[in-house]
Amino acid sequence: MKVIGYTRVSTAEQAKDGWTLAQQRKDIEAECARRGWDLVEVIEDAGYSGTNDERPGLQRALTMLKKRQARAVVVARLDRLARSTQHLCEYIALCKKQKWSMVALDVDLDTTTANGRFMVRVLAAVAEWESEVNGERVRDGMAEARASGKVFGFQAQVDPKTVQQIVKQREQGESFNAIARKLDAQGTPTPGGGARWQSSTVRRICNREAS
Q1: Which residue range or ranges hold the Resolvase/invertase-type recombinase catalytic domain (predicted)?
Q2: Dihedrals phi, psi of 38, to nearest 5 degrees
Q3: Residues 95 and 37 in one domain
Q4: Is residue 142, in this structure, part of any structural domain at all?
Q5: Residue 200 among the catalytic residues
Q6: Is the pLDDT of residue 13 over 80?
Q7: Residue 101 bridge partners (DSSP)
Q8: What is the distance between the alpha carbons of residues 163 and 119, in angstroms, rounded to a whole number?
Q9: Backbone angles phi, psi at 175, to 5 degrees
């Protein structure tokens, strides 16, 4: 089976001993050799946070998987791919839709196996629970603020037309990441004047409007 290796370190992690890009590559190469997998390429992102969905190496790996140039992506540790359960489940949904697999060597996450697919279902359930809990907290906080006559700075910073666009695209089934990328492409100003739109910001807006 043809697979892609993916490695990542953030700026802070680059200074640490024992968890370098080279070490991750070594672990991936060893496991692929043990399983008899054809390691097509090891793609790296140096100096990128796991909370950043727009890592160039990750995006290239996802493109290769979509084009069927490999059937799986292998990481030495799960947090190299995603830092949150929500982000991880977005990648899991993508791999299911596009029919490729995901393997993390530090945990039993291997969607080529029955155990791995079971773990995916558990993670999806946890992500759904987290989303519901966060949504309840947002709604409760907004209700309390409205009752006291307060207006959050975040709410005031988002143009109503932008909010309508985000809600409409979300209702049409677009992911938070896809919506954020479109807003960047359109040059839409971000809340607080940040450099780029983040999927977490789009998610907050959708949760707020659903309350």
Answers
A1: 2-149
A2: -90, 105
A3: yes
A4: no
A5: no
A6: no
A7: 72
A8: 35
A9: -75, 160
Q: Please indicate, yes or no, whether residues 97 and 179 belong to a single structural domain of this protein.
A: no
Instruction: Give CA–CA dist 205/36, Å, rounded.
Output: 46
Q: Which domain holds residue 173?
A: 151-211
Q: Which residues are paired to 88 by β-bridges?
A: none
Considering the domain boundaries, does residue 182 fall inside one?
yes
**pLDDT tens digits, one per residue of 104-136:** 998 878 888 888 778 777 776 765 676 676 666
Round to whole Å and give the CA distance between 121 and 92: 10
Closest CA to 60 of 123, 9, 8, 125: 8
Question: Length of the chain, please?
Answer: 211
CB half-sphere exposure, 141, CA atoms < 13 A: 13
Number of domains present in the structure of the chain: 2
C-alpha closest to that of 43 among 60, 23, 22, 30: 60
Active-site annotation holder among 10, 84, 131, 200? 10
Amino acid making up residue 14: Q
Cα angle 64, 67, 68 (rounded to 5 degrees) comes to: 90
DSSP code, position 209: H
Residue 180 tokens read as 């954020």
> E strand or H helix at 6, and its extent?
strand 2-9
Q: Which two tokens stand for residue 39?
A: 């390691």
| Last residue within a domain, chosen from 67, 101, 122 | 122
Spatial distance between the Cα atoms of 145 and 151, rounded to a whole number of angstroms: 7
**Strands of the sheet with 101-104, listed across from one edge:** 38-46, 2-9, 72-75, 101-104, 109-110
Are 33 and 97 contained in the same domain? yes
Segment 41-53, tens digit of pLDDT: 999 998 887 777 7
